[in-house]
Predict the structure of Aldose reductase.
Amino acid sequence: MALAQEPKTQSFNLLSGHSIPAVGLGTWKSGSQATTSVYTAIVEAGYKHIDTAYQYGIQEEVGQALQSAMEAGIERKDLFITSKLWPPKEGEVLELNMEGVWREMEKLVNDKLVRDIGICNFTISKLNNLLSFAHIFPSVCQMEMHPGWRNEKMLEACKKYGIHVTAYSPLGSSGGRDLIHDQTVDRIAKKLNKSPGQVLVKWALQRGTSVIPKSTKADRIKENVSVFNWSIPDQDFKALSNMPDQKRVLNGEELFVNKSVGPFRSVQEIWDNED
């Protein structure tokens, strides 16, 4: 009897008609290891989705990995590369012109320079504002999401408009909410004979979100994408979905807040007091 092989990846459909691979590789804080980790993810582990940003300072490393992957036979059209625009630096702007920025992003789609545009770290208030003038709706909203911060209000708001959600920091954080060593996660992982990381990735997928776990270790990169031919039983899924003490790991203070000149002068302003 032949055994079913683990599929390399699955995908979710987007408003644009394109699709986004269900599991991608996060690259924040990957540093010089990004070249090796991105190449390993694509060529050895079968990833089709890489998440990065200019602000991460690793564009050359990611670019080298993509070039090497294509030289190894991977076609660029099969890869989904996510990047991001960063908030302006101190003193560059006093108020964000969301509509002006979005119009320029829409031009990128119309000029066929990008296939999809999306948003990250949004609130319901910011989303409603954007949708009031957008000609092209965002295909994806990327947010911190894991059992320790389910972010259910934003998830439901995006579902209402057909906007797909990508979950970042799906494993929590060793400096904040360390879900890898959480007792509930560990219990379920042992029951299913899976790693805690696989359980957390699978939880995100079963919620209907894509997910971008970050790792620079080859074995973890491969492990995190081996999540498609099994499922978390309902009772265990509910246990993960009802974990107490909901709180963001990344509240954005270090990255986005400037108390003197803005445009965000407090954490509350970033999240529009919606938490």
